[in-house]
Amino acid sequence: MTKKKSTNLLSGIRVLDLTRVMSGPFCTSMLADLGAEIIKIEMPDIGDEARYFGPFYKGESAYFMLLNRSKKSVTVNLKTDEGRALIRNIIPKCDVLIENFRPGVMERLGLDEKNVRQINQSIIYTSISGFGQDGPLKDWPAFDLVIQAMSGLMSLTGPKGGPDTAVGESIADICTGMYAAFGTVSALFDRERTNKGRFVDVAMLDSMMSIQMTGLARQLYNKDTPKPVGNRHPVTYPVDSFSTLNGDIVMVCFSDKLFKSLCELIGVPDLSSDDRFSSNKQRNINETELYKLIENWTKNKSQSFILNALLSRGIPAAPVWNLSQLTSSDHVKERGLITEGFNSIVGNIPIVPQPIRFSDTEGNLRSLSPALGEDTLAVLEEYTNLTFEELNALKLKKII
Fold first, then answer.
1. Which of 105, 229, 127 is nearest to 184 (CA)?
2. Taking the model in full, what pTM does it have?
3. Within the chain, which residue ranges are assigned CATH 3.30.1540.10?
4. Active-site annotation holds for 233
5. Closest alpha carbon to 12 in 191, 201, 196, 200
6. Active site residue: 138, 218, 232, 233, which one?
């Protein structure tokens, strides 16, 4: 029997990780899951700000541990000449540098793409920022909520007629991190063919704009600016959520054929030929009335009954789960979406690695979430040619 390989598709790739908080660390965690060596640089005694974000588990940030799996934590004071010299010594030995400081910070540190490329011509230099490295907004401070607000996402999220509403997760950080990982790996692939390093500029606002396909189709082609519509699909109806006796469900009744099946199921077969509901346009116009007719059928029956009835007719439907229901589900267990990691301070911890599966591979390797600076001496001794004694002297000076 052929032994399966681990998911080390990026084995041999070394990443100098100068990112903090979420967008950058999410990017580098995806690369770590695929076997890249991630050298995460943190400030001595302070570390990544994310180490102080709740919730906490046994005194350690669960948020940080999820985001920084399988990385090496190396503490270097970038505010000192000696600290920056250490970074310059590591750069020639790296394939990728990723940073998510505000534009201009890396230049002030002397670690911008121009200076780094003089040290390592073939390096991939990925910069993650709120608004990109150029443009009138480049110097604005960017947080997830700021980007959700400016990207238009908040303007089309929430109850119909209600206030603009943020999505319940840091979606701008996450999406930008994924785009940055995509851009970095694409640049690495190109380097294999050209031996040329590239600069990769990834902006949070750009990323959030690019994912809004339905809204952009309406705005760019019809000048139809979307507004919040609640849980329903903004164009097609009935695609919405409905209450049952013991929890909400969603249904995706996206065609005339499926709507006809739904009408038969709820006991009003003639409804599909009714002028008020005979086309998607009319169903949208008479949405309120149609919603009541459907919910009169769903609200007095159990969730399982409604789901089984809809699915038996080929109408896509699902329960509305909370995170407790999702994480405890048989599906999550069978797919291995939660794996066991380890932290030297708290012991075994649950980890959610990147979800892509590759043929001829095992599951993700056990993830190690680093304590602050636990890899400093080992990494710097290997990659800077400094002796243990010299590194200890730097440690006493709080350079590392």
1. 127
2. 0.93
3. 239-321
4. yes
5. 191
6. 233
Instruction: With beta carbons less than 8 A apart as the criterion, state whether 341 and 367 touch.
Output: yes
Q: Which CATH superfamily is domain 14-211+330-396 in?
A: Crotonobetainyl-coa:carnitine coa-transferase; domain 1 (3.40.50.10540)
Using DSSP's 3-state secondary structure scheme, residue 37 falls into strand
> Homologous superfamily of 239-321 in CATH?
formyl-coa transferase, domain 3 (3.30.1540.10)
Tally of CB atoms within 10 A around 287: 17
b/e string for 65-88 if b means 16 or more Cβ within 10 A? bbbbbbbbbbbbbbebeebbebbb
How crowded is residue 211: how many other Cβ atoms within 10 Å of its Cβ?
15
pLDDT in tens, 116-158: 999 999 999 999 999 999 999 999 999 999 999 999 999 999 9
Where do the CATH 3.40.50.10540 domains begin and end in the chain? 14-211+330-396
Phi then psi for residue 201, to 5 deg, are: -105, 115
Reported as a single tens digit per residue, the pLDDT across 283-341 is 999 999 999 999 999 999 999 999 999 999 999 999 999 999 999 999 999 999 999 99
E-only strand ranges, 106-210: 124-129, 199-203
Give the whole-angstrom CA distance, residue 339 versus residue 73: 21
Q: Which of 143, 156, 155, 158 is nearest to 205 (CA)?
A: 143
Q: Nearest Cα to 394, choosing from 119, 94, 84?
A: 84
Taking the alpha carbons at both ends of the chain, their separation in whole angstroms is: 48
